[in-house]
Design brief:
Blueprint lengths: L2 H4 L2 H31 L3 H32 L10 H17 L12
Helix pairs in contact: 2-3, 2-4, 3-4
Length: 113
């Protein structure tokens, strides 16, 4: 049985939102663990943090694409979404700043503090 054919468009979008939110949640946990390792001087964690942050940026981009798709289909404007992506972005920005302060991700380009 193919559920994507039977499932309404909005339900599929919300399923995708939940999937993306889960991935973002997992990656935030990974970044926090890497932050702890960097604080105790684990240099390998610096390399891994850059990979985790790149993955996190990719999933955040996907979340915004899904949000835009939802708004396009429902005629809503950005800002009334069920996921608070602005808060997620602020949280991730804070984590990036703490990684930089710990000396871990100074090479992350294109990110403001």
């Amino acid at each position: 049985m193919n559920t994507s054919i039977e499932q309404p468009h909005e339900d599929r979008i919300f399923d995708r939102f939940r999937n993306v939110a889960g991935q973002i949640h997992d990656l935030i946990g990974e970044v926090e663990a890497l932050q702890n390792k960097i604080r105790v001087g684990d240099l390998e964690a610096v390399k891994n943090s850059e990979k985790a942050l790149a993955a996190l940026r990719g999933w955040m981009k996907r979340a915004y694409e899904l949000e835009d798709l939802h708004h396009e289909r429902t005629g809503q404007s950005r800002g009334g979404a069920e996921l608070d992506l602005g808060a997620a972005r602020a949280s991730i920005g804070g984590r990036l700043a703490r990684l930089r302060a710990a000396g871990g991700a100074g090479a992350v380009s294109g990110q403001s503090e």
